[in-house]
Structures are given as structure tokens and as C-alpha cells.
Automatic annotation (TrEMBL):
Pfam families: SCO1-SenC. The lineage of its organism: Bacteria, Pseudomonadati, Pseudomonadota, Alphaproteobacteria, Rhodobacterales. SUPFAM superfamilies: Thioredoxin-like. Keywords: Signal. It comes from the Bacteria. InterPro entries: SCO1/SenC (IPR003782), Thioredoxin-like_sf (IPR036249). The keyword Membrane does not apply. This is SCO family protein. Belongs to the SCO1/2 family. The keyword Lyase does not apply.
Amino acid sequence: MALTPRFAAILASAAVVAGLGATVLFTQGGDEDIFAQCRRGVVGGSGQLGGPFTLVSETGETVTDKDVFTKPSLLYFGYTYCPDVCPLDNSRNAEAVTLLDERGYDVTPVFVSVDTERDTPELLAEFTEIMHPKMLGLTGSAEQISVASKAYRTYFKVQNPGDPYTLIDHSTQTYLVFPEIGFVDFFNRDTTPEQMAEQVSCFVDAWKNSQ
């Protein structure tokens, strides 16, 4: 597939070392936590994050969270025009998924675009193809994206609405989500692919052992 100059630049920038992200803590009371031995980012559980959403896939199909999270998934909110953070973080997530594949763990990387004006399904398909063959790109209307973003307590703000070259401020955590269970933990930007693969494998093992 021939790449546009913009996506060729994205691919090149993905080789740069990622910076540090903010640390976030979430709490939950309740039942015994089957993932307690695996957690690094979430203190006490994860019940305050996640929820239902309806979005549009990179193939143009309307999908819900149940359609998307059929396997353990790494969920990230960003946009394809992002000049640095998004390609770096998604490249890291893709590398972690490849490491997990090599260890026999089937994990899906998911990219939700918060850029409802520019990120068409076609652009998302090009972006995800660059990043990883298993990556799923999602977009939607402003209302649909807002619902999904609020469910996972992410932040985004368009700097100059109406400007075709505008940047978008956004949060940079990656969320680990399981079918039926939902959100279980998150990873900051300073997590390496090796660390992410190691932690995700722990979660997947605990999930399988509980079934």
C-alpha cells in the first residue's frame, strides 16, 4: 500500500523515545480482586472507569463496546494528525501486542480518534495498518466520541476549532479492557513495551484462571 507523506512521517516519528505521562489513580471497593497481584496503576480496583459506547469502525460499520472488546484489548484515545504523542504511544502498544503474540497471548490494540472533523474511517484504516495488522480504529460523531471519552474519563480539547491544521490536547493513558469485565488497569507513557507485555500477560493469566 502506498503511504501518504503524512503517514510516512508518522511512521518515522514512532521510533522516537516516548516521554513521561501523568500518573493517575482510581479506586473501587467491593468484591475480591482477581487481578490484585498484577496491578501497577490502579489502587484498590477499577469499577469507576469504562462503560457502554457506540462508535464507527474503520470499515464504516457501527459497533458497540461489546463488539469491540471480544478479547483482552489495549485502548487508546488520540488522533491521526497528532504529530508526536499518538504515533509514539500506539507504536509502543503495537510492539507490546507483538511481544504478547510471541508468548501466545491474543490481545487487540484499539485506537479511538477524538478528531471527529478530520479522521474518517479511511484515514483510520491507513493509520492502523501502519501501526499493527490487529489494530482496530474507531471514530464517530462528536456526541458518540464524547460518550466514550467520558466513560473512560479521558480529556481532549481542540485548540483551534475550524482550523484544518489544529492540534488537539488529549490524555495519553492506555487502558486494558477485558470482555464482560471491562476496564481493569491503565498504563502511562513511560511504560515500555516489555513492561506492558509482562503486565498484560499477568492479567490474562489471572482472567483465564478465574473462568
